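Thread: Modeling a multi-component assembly for a lab meeting

Hi all, long-time lurker, first post. My supervisor asked me to bring a structural picture of a complex we are working on to next week's group meeting, and I have zero experience with this. I have the sequence lines for every component (500 residues in total). Could someone generate the structure of the whole assembly? Inputs are pasted exactly as I received them:
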Amino acid sequence: MVSEQIVERPLVSITNVIFSFDTVTKQLLVLLLQRSQAPFMGAWGLPTTTLRSNESADAAALRLVKEKLGVHLTSNQTEQLGTFTNVGRVPGQRTLALTYMVYLPVKPALIPGAGARAVRWFAVTPRTDRDDLVAGDLSFTGLTDDVSAADFYQRERGTTQLAADHALIVKTALQRVRNRLNYAPTILRVLGVSFTLKRARELYALLERRSVSQIDNSNFRKTHGHLFEQVGFVRGNGSGRPARVYRLKD
Amino acid sequence: MVSEQIVERPLVSITNVIFSFDTVTKQLLVLLLQRSQAPFMGAWGLPTTTLRSNESADAAALRLVKEKLGVHLTSNQTEQLGTFTNVGRVPGQRTLALTYMVYLPVKPALIPGAGARAVRWFAVTPRTDRDDLVAGDLSFTGLTDDVSAADFYQRERGTTQLAADHALIVKTALQRVRNRLNYAPTILRVLGVSFTLKRARELYALLERRSVSQIDNSNFRKTHGHLFEQVGFVRGNGSGRPARVYRLKD
DNA sequence: ACCTTAAAGGTATAAAATACCTAAAACAAA
DNA sequence: TTTGTTTTAGGTATTTTATACCTTTAAGGT
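Re: Modeling a multi-component assembly
Sure thing. I ran the full set together rather than chain by chain. Output:
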C-alpha cells in the first residue's frame, strides 16, 4: 500500500462532465468554461479543481459543482467516469484527472468564477459519426467515434480544440451514458428527480441518434418500464391529458 | 487544471486485481500477497505499487505485474477498474488507489518478493449470495453482493479480512467482469490468446453460478459466436476430436 | 473397428422486441 | 356542453432472439 520509496507526487485534480437539460430547446447540455490562466489560457475546458487532503474524490466532485454553480448535490447525482493519467496530458506539473459525471436536475444561471473568463452550456449535438458540442457560434468536435484513447494522445491538437484531453473525457462520458441507457439510465436525472415518459423518450431519441417519433410510446413502456416507478400526476402543462410523473427505480 | 493553492498531495498507488486460470482444477484465480510491512502487516491484500512521475497508470499496472510475476504484458491485457479515494482507506498517509484488472494468459510460478511474506493464487469461489476467495485453508469472503460501496467504509473490519478496501475492489472487479460477459468478455484472456469454446463455457458457467452442462454448446455458439474468431486447430489433447481454437474479436 | 469428444447443423418452443392500432382519461378552449 | 388535444393503457401481429433438445459428421485416440 505504502511503498516508502521517494517519488515526486503528482497533482491530483478532479474534472467534471456536468450534464444538464434545456426543457425548451430539448437539448442535452455540458458545462464548459474558458480558462483565464495557464496552462491552456483562453481554451475551453471542463470544470476542474484540486483534491484536498480531507475529502474523497466524490466529495470533491460535489464541491466543484457547488463552487461553479452554487448547487448543492448529493452523491447519487455523480458517478466516477475514469482516471486519466497520461504523462503529457497537461504541460508543466504532472497532473492526474479523476473524472466524474454529474447530472444536474436544474439549469442554474451561470456566473464566471475565479480562473474562468467565461462559462457556458454547450449542447450535445449528435452527428452520424461523432458528437459535437455547440453553443451559438462556438463548436467543438467531441471526438470522432472511432478514435481510440491510445491514439488520442498521439495526435496534434490545434488551438480550436478543448483544453488538454477534455475532448477524450467528454467522448468517454457520452459512451458510458449510451451504454447505460438500457439498464441504468442515470442520465435521466438531468430531467429532475421526476419526469414524464415523454421527456425520457426525447432524451433517448437524442442519444440514440433517432427522432422521437421512432421511439414508440407503448413499446418504450414495455421495454424500459421496469426502470421507472410512478410518483403522481403533473399539473396541466398545456392542452391534453397531463402526463404521469415517474422517477428512476433503485 | 492546475489550481495553485497549496494542498498536501496524496500518495498515488496502483493496485491490481490479477486474474489467472488453473486449467487442471478449472478455477478462476486471483493473486493475493501477505504483507510483511505496515500498514496491514500480516494481512493478505492485492499487489500494489506507487505511481512514478514518468509513467502513466496503465504503464505502472504493467510494471507491477512484471515486478511481482516476471511476466511482460501489453496494455490490452489490462483495464482500468476504478479509483478508490476514501480518506480513511489506509491508516497513515493519505493514499489513493488507482485500480486495474489484469488478465494473465499464463499461470506463472510464484516467488514472494520485497514487501511480501507470502504470495498465493486464490480461487474465486462463487456462492449463492457472494464470492469467496479460497486457497487451501485460507478463505476470504470477497463481499456480500448487496453491500454498497458507501456502506463498506462504515463497517467494522476484523483481522481475518483483506487489507484496506481490497475486498471492495475485488467485489467491484467481479461485478465488472460479469457485466461484460455478454458484450466484451475480456476475462477470457486468462485462457491465453486463444482458447477452445469448451474452456470459454467453463468460465462462463463459473461466473454465472451454473454448471457447465447448463450452457448448451450449440446455443452458446449462436449467442456468443460473434464475439470470437477462429484461429486453427489444437493438437490432440486426449481422446476425441480436437477442439477448434478461437480468440476474442476486436 | 470402436470409443470418445467436439463440430456443425437442425427443429420446436419460449421469450423479447418492434410495428401498429384502439379506446379511454384528463385536461384546455370554444 | 362540446370539441380538440395529448397522454395513458391496453390490445394484436410480426419479427427477432434465446433456449431446449436432437442428429450427424469430423477427427482424433486405443
